[in-house]
C-alpha cells in the first residue's frame, strides 16, 4: 500500500510539473499577445473603446493566469502534505483510505486545471484572432484615410 501511495504521489508530482510548464507557456503566450495588442493600440489611431477592450481582455487573461497559479500552488502544498503523511504515518488502512480519497480529489483538481489550461489556450487563440482582426481593421482605416486625403487634396486643387 505504501509503495502504491508513493507511486501515485510521484505520478501526481509529474502531472503537476507538466501543468506548471503548460501554465508558464500559457502565461508567456498571454503576455506576448498582450504586448502585441498594446503595441498595436499605441501605433494606431483606433478609438478609445477599442483600446479599452484590448486592455480588458488582457486583464481577464491575467486574472485567469493568477487563479491557475493559486490552484497549482494549492495542489503542490497538498501533494507535499500527502508525501509527508505517507512517510511519517504507518497507521491503519483507514488512513490509507483517507489518502486515497485525497489522491482522487487531487486527480479531479488536476483534471480541472488541465481543462482550465485548455480554456486559456483557446482564450489565447481568440486574442490572437482579435489581434489579426485589429491589424486588418487598421489597414482598412489607413486605406480609407489615404482615399479621403487624396479626395481632399483634389478638392483643394
Automatic annotation (TrEMBL):
Keywords: Coiled coil
A GO CC annotation given for this chain: cytoplasm
Residues annotated as signal peptide: none
Coiled coil: 58-151
Biological process, per Gene Ontology: cytoplasmic microtubule organization; cytoskeleton-dependent intracellular transport
UniProt superkingdom: Eukaryota
PANTHER family referenced in this protein's UniProt entry, alphabetically: HOOK PROTEINS, PROTEIN DAPLE
Name of the featured protein: DAPLE protein
Gene source species: Nycticryphes semicollaris
Amino acid at each position: 500500500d505504501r509503495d502504491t501511495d508513493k507511486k501515485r504521489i510521484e505520478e501526481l508530482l509529474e502531472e503537476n510539473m507538466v501543468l506548471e510548464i503548460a501554465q508558464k507557456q500559457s502565461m508567456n503566450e498571454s503576455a506576448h499577445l498582450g504586448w502585441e495588442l498594446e503595441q498595436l493600440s499605441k501605433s494606431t489611431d483606433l478609438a478609445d473603446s477599442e483600446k479599452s477592450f484590448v486592455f480588458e481582455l488582457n486583464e481577464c487573461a491575467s486574472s485567469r493566469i493568477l487563479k491557475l497559479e493559486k490552484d497549482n500552488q494549492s495542489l503542490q502544498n497538498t501533494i507535499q502534505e500527502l508525501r509527508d503523511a505517507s512517510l511519517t504515518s504507518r497507521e491503519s488502512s483507514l488512513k490509507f483510505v483517507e489518502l486515497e480519497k485525497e489522491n482522487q480529489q487531487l486527480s479531479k483538481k488536476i483534471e480541472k486545471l488541465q481543462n482550465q489550461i485548455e480554456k486559456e489556450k483557446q482564450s489565447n487563440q481568440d486574442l490572437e484572432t482579435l489581434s489579426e482582426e485589429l491589424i486588418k481593421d487598421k489597414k482598412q482605416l489607413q486605406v480609407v484615410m489615404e482615399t479621403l486625403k487624396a479626395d481632399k487634396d483634389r478638392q483643394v486643387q
